[in-house]
């Protein structure tokens, strides 16, 4: 079993300066190694016997790979001695990031999905570095001992689980704050067995914008709208930012103020999602939900409200937490869940403004979202209501 715990760091000013310097040095070397791969690809992308007449035949070179680029770090440190200040394994992990980014561009991920062309990192765009061989000995209750940086104050808001081995430690800089993500592994944790979904051990949920979600039991979770509530303050701060001279010190400070508001909104939303997922899973039931095309929905007029609700993040958190609790999350076809009657299966046409379901065939009358949640539950267990 693999899990990650993230904690807030409180580094001193000298420690922040060191970590900032590391990020900048890693950014430069990342761009250099990525350009080396691009150059080889442009020169060797087709066989010599199939090369078009408009190109020149370069001197053939070996393809840069992870190992050759890691070996190149040794002469690079001799030519640029200031790179010796960066922990060696952190530099080696940066080379792996270049490899992963370039391989996803050429070959695709495990599902065969290819990414776009990797971008060169601009100033401030390289925000994390990883210790690939971390140890639990580095962590105590008040600090984490990072090689070549020292003991950095740590806010251990929850204890580390027993029996797990620390694999990697990643230092992340986000909107003026430093965090450490500890990747933990325990190979002795057995694989969980999941019960088959039944009407008794499964609950359906319908996510929306009027309410964040409604369950098939009729429970409603109010939508918090964190971004909408902070929109007025963001508008004021962004107006102040627009009046600053670009790249000036005042501009940088204004950017940080805007980033802090966005960071707070993100943290509030994630905290709400975790608490909502925990409340749902505390019933000990599997969860059925609609398989929504969220990316497509964010291109509609309701994009701001959908992004504010964060359905995608919530469903991802729900899936992870359910798996660890030995429960299932079942995605069902969303077509007709709001239109079909949950009692008799007859299609009752409604517009988006119609918030109540009234069936003329069986007399079923209940909230539109509650009706959809019941339909989701029945589809999740494999027993949808069919119209007679």
UniProtKB/TrEMBL annotation:
Alphabetic keyword roster: Coiled coil, DNA recombination, DNA-binding, Metal-binding, Transposition, Zinc
Recorded coiled-coil stretches: 227-254
The Transposase putative helix-turn-helix domain, residue ranges: 1-45
Residue span, Cas12f1-like TNB domain: 311-376
Domain spans labelled Probable transposase IS891/IS1136/IS1341: 197-299
Similarity section: In the C-terminal section; belongs to the transposase 35 family.
Alphabetical list of PANTHER family matching this protein: RNA-GUIDED DNA ENDONUCLEASE INSQ-RELATED, TRANSPOSASE
Record's protein name: Transposase
Taxonomic source organism: Stenomitos frigidus AS-A4
Lineage, opening ranks: Bacteria, Bacillati, Cyanobacteriota, Cyanophyceae, Leptolyngbyales
């Amino acid at each position: 079993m693999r899990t990650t715990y993230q904690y807030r760091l409180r580094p001193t000013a000298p420690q922040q300066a060191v970590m900032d310097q590391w990020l900048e040095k890693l950014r430069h070397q990342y761009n250099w190694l990525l350009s080396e791969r691009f150059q080889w690809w442009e020169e060797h992308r087709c066989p010599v016997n199939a090369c078009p007449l408009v190109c020149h035949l370069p001197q053939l070179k070996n393809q840069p790979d992870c190992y050759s680029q890691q070996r190149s770090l040794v002469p690079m440190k001799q030519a640029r001695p200031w790179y010796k200040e960066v922990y060696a394994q952190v530099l080696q992990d940066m080379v792996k990031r270049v490899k992963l980014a370039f391989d996803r561009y050429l070959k695709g991920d495990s599902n065969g999905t290819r990414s776009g062309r990797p971008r060169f990192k601009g100033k401030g765009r390289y925000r994390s570095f990883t210790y690939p061989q971390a140890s639990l000995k580095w962590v105590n209750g008040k600090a984490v001992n990072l090689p070549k940086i020292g003991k950095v104050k740590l806010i251990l808001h929850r204890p580390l689980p027993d029996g797990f081995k620390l694999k990697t430690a990643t230092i992340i800089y986000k909107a003026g704050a430093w965090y450490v993500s500890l990747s933990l592994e325990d190979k002795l944790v057995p694989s969980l067995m999941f019960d088959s979904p039944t009407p008794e051990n499964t609950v359906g949920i319908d996510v929306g914008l009027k309410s964040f979600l409604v369950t098939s039991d009729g429970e409603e979770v109010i939508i918090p709208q964190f971004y909408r509530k902070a929109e007025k303050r963001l508008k004021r701060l962004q107006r102040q930012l627009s009046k600053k001279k670009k790249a000036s010190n005042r501009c940088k400070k204004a950017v940080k103020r805007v980033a802090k508001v966005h960071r707070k909104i993100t943290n509030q939303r994630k905290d709400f999602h975790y608490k909502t997922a925990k409340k749902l899973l505390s019933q000990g039931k599997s969860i059925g939900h609609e398989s929504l095309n969220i990316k497509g929905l964010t291109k509609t007029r309701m994009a701001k409200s959908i992004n504010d609700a964060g359905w995608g993040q919530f469903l991802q958190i729900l899936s992870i937490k359910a798996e660890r609790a030995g429960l299932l999350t079942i995605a069902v076809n969303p077509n007709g869940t709001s239109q079909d009657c949950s009692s008799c299966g007859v299609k009752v046409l409604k517009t988006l403004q119609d918030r109540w379901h009234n069936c003329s065939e069986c007399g079923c009358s209940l909230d539109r979202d509650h009706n959809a949640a019941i339909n989701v539950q029945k589809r999740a267990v494999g027993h949808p209501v069919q119209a007679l």
